[in-house]
Amino acid sequence: MDQALHFDQDQDGIVTLTMDHHETRNALTGNSLVEELLKALQRIEADPAVRAVIITGAGKVFSSGGSIKDMQRQLQPEVGSMALRHEYQRGIQRLPLALHNLEVPTIAAVNGPAIGAGFDLACMCDIRIAAEQAIFAESFVKLGLIPGDGGAWFLPRLIGMSRAAEMTLTGDPIDTKQALAWGLISKAVAPDQLLDECRKMAQRIAANPPAAVRMSKRLLREGQHSRLDTLLEMSAGFQAIAHKTPDHAQAVDAFLQKRGSRTKTS
Q1: Above pLDDT 90, what percent of the chain?
Q2: Contact, 189 vs 129, CB < 8 A?
Q3: For a Cys-Cys bond, which of 17, 59, 156, 181 suits 164, CB 3.0-4.6 Å?
Q4: What's the average pLDDT block by block, 10 residues per block, for the chain (266 residues)?
Q5: Which residues contact 182 (CB under 8 A, 6 or more apart)?
């Protein structure tokens, strides 16, 4: 099977994952994309040199979501409901779990339409930056389906229940102007500037001590469903670890030296 995902890692520890399945416009079903993404995320998780991840699509589409051809297969009488349930559990539903649990920060570089499961993939990332011509649609109901890959969990946490319900129950798309106003994306840029903007964001993240970044991301994730006292207990443990890292010691020394030099010159 042809490779549908390109893995590129630069000297700053920034990995760019580019979905490239032209035939389906980077659909997440009916090809090897989910499996390749899962393998890439495992590789990233195991590599302490990775500081940030950018996920984007080749061509003019981020991801078209589900493959219509694959949906035709699923309609056949010989494919039962229990078999389809297991397909989801053993297939695409592993992707939101893997991305949610990944300690390395992720940035979705939304280069074009992000539809259905493709939109949910962007929502699974920590940060979204979009090209100006991108559109976003939680469009499952248009095909008589439901968000089967976790979109009903991610989307309300990003834009609130009312707006998430509007997108989910109408299936209508929104443009980057609306996405920016709703806080779905951090920035909309010209298409030829998208990857540069995402790399700049990734470099700003990568410039910070990696242990602190990874633990901070974990706390943000846990804070979405934990009680305050539980999160504070976890924060105390993480902070105790952070206090003993070489990065923290170096940062404190650098601050004291800088303050000392200012005192001498004043």
Answers
A1: 83
A2: yes
A3: 156
A4: 89 97 92 96 96 97 90 85 88 94 97 97 98 97 94 97 98 98 98 98 97 96 94 97 95 86 64
A5: 159, 163, 174
Fold of the domain spanning 5-206: 2-enoyl-CoA Hydratase; Chain A, domain 1 (3.90.226)
Spell out the residues 6+ positions from residue 53 whose beta carbon is closer than 8 angstroms to its own.
14, 15, 16, 17, 44, 102, 104, 105, 106, 107, 202
Cα dist from 185 to 61, 77, 119, 223, 263, whole Å: 17, 41, 12, 20, 43
- pTM higher than 0.70 for the full model? yes
Tens of pLDDT, residue by residue over 35-66, are 999 999 999 999 999 999 999 999 999 999 98
Range(s) for CATH 3.90.226.10 in the chain?
Answer: 5-206
d(CA 225, CA 237): 18
210-265 has CATH 1.10.12 classification: yes
Q: Can you tell me the distance from the alpha carbon of 188 to that of 128, in angstroms, rounded to the nearest whole number?
A: 9
Residues of the chain with CATH 1.10.12: 210-265
CB atoms within 10 A of CB 7: 15
Provide the token pair at 100.
Answer: 């949610």
Instruction: Answer whether 182's CB lies under 8 Å from 159's CB.
Output: yes
pLDDT for 266 equals: 56
